[in-house]
Amino acid sequence: MSVTFDINVPATSANIGPGFDVMGLSLSLYLTVRATVQATQAEFGENSSGLSLDPTKNLITRTALYVLSCHGARDFPHPTHVVVNNRIPLGRGLGSSGAAVVAGVLLADAVGELQLTKQRMLDYCLMIEHHPDNVAAALVGGFVASYLIEVDRSGNIPESEGDASQQRQRELEAQRQNSEIKLPPANIGHYVQLGCSSKIKAVTIIPQFELATSKARAALPGSYEIKDVVFNLQRLAVLTTALGRETPDPWLIYRAMEDKVHQPYRKHLIPGLPEILATLNPDNTPGLLGICLSGAGPTILALAVDNFDQIADKIRKVFASQPDGGIDTHYKLLDIVSEGASCVKTPGPAL
Ligand SMILES: Nc1ncnc2c1ncn2[C@@H]1O[C@H](COP(=O)(O)OP(=O)(O)OP(=O)(O)O)[C@@H](O)[C@H]1O
Ligand SMILES: N[C@@H](CCO)C(=O)O
């Protein structure tokens, strides 16, 4: 007799303009993982993205192995067959690494029969991905604000590729060989799910190049002028409520999605970003509520209530008109989903 677990984790868009490392929206685009325990063979299944299928290297299985080892299990129950189907594009600002980390925690919880609460799952996610915006939204769903208690992360913890350079990954790997597994302290992440009008959809324009979060974070300055911090705080406070109004106020939201903390420093990494942010507004683009970089980029997120395809066309044209032949893009119109990550257990033969 086998048991199959079907794990579903939504993509997320982090920051939403001013809420750098704070805000996340979960979107109707999914990473799915099917794990079958006590099947007849042990093997890691194919995924669509060409990522490592070595369970000690792949972010989903590395995360699961970390959580299992925190519970005294050094490996998956044997044999475990894992099949990954990833529809979230990698390194585009749609929370692929956050989804992989969340999936890994749910995978360990399922196959190890750990019965972790979502709060405890968030602790594990935050030991690996150090900013809570993507993982909190992927785990619980909807429009989510979160903060993190500072913790010591030295020791044997897998780090999300998004946060660590390859050099840092090698250093961490060397440290891990000799260190004890580090359990997360309890309650290191705190979140609230905020209201978001059902009229709002996410127009996502996804350039056909990857931008590693580590590179986009390395572009940020070490300190900020107080006027820029205040600029973001003012807008963020308004944004938390403005998106929840049943009839959204376009100009209120448009201004509340402006940012001076991360987008200005990342513009050289996303050709066309300044023009896109400066060109489209609710007067010249009816239906548009606000526009920003999705996560660390390069995807553009436009929140809108109408004229979705026209909004997408305008943004795509700016990318297409960049020097040296322009930038190819994909367009996805996504819903904001109120359900976060889930795992369904099905007893019986599978595969
Ligand atoms: N399904 C997956 N399986 C294994 N590893 C993954 C998966 N998805 C993402 N990753 C890892 O995460 C890396 C991308 O993470 P990164 O943080 O740079 O981008 P992102 O999460 O897509 O963007 P953002 O954090 O801005 O939303 C990939 O190169 C890969 O190493
Ligand atoms: N808040 C993060 C999101 C990317 O994962 C950033 O902008 O770097």
From TrEMBL:
Entries under InterPro entries matching the protein: GHMP_kinase_C_dom, GHMP_kinase_C_sf, GHMP_kinase_N_dom, GHMP_knse_ATP-bd_CS, Homoserine_kinase, Ribosomal_Su5_D2-typ_SF, Ribsml_uS5_D2-typ_fold_subgr
SUPFAM superfamilies on file: GHMP Kinase, C-terminal domain, Ribosomal protein S5 domain 2-like
Pfam families, alphabetized: GHMP_kinases_C, GHMP_kinases_N
Principal EC category: transferase
Residue span(s) of domain GHMP kinase N-terminal: 58-142
GO molecular function annotation: ATP binding; homoserine kinase activity
Annotated ranges, domain GHMP kinase C-terminal: 255-319
Disordered: region residues: 158-179
Single Gene Ontology BP annotation: threonine biosynthetic process
Top-level taxon of origin: Eukaryota
E.C. number: 2.7.1.39
Pathway the protein contributes to: Amino-acid biosynthesis; L-threonine biosynthesis; L-threonine from L-aspartate: step 4/5
Keywords, comma-separated and alphabetical: Amino-acid biosynthesis, ATP-binding, Kinase, Nucleotide-binding, Threonine biosynthesis, Transferase
Catalyzed reaction equations: L-homoserine + ATP = O-phospho-L-homoserine + ADP + H(+)
PROSITE patterns noted in UniProt: GHMP_KINASES_ATP
Coiled coil: none
Family: Belongs to the GHMP kinase family. Homoserine kinase subfamily.
Cited HAMAP family: Homoser_kinase
Protein name (database record): Homoserine kinase
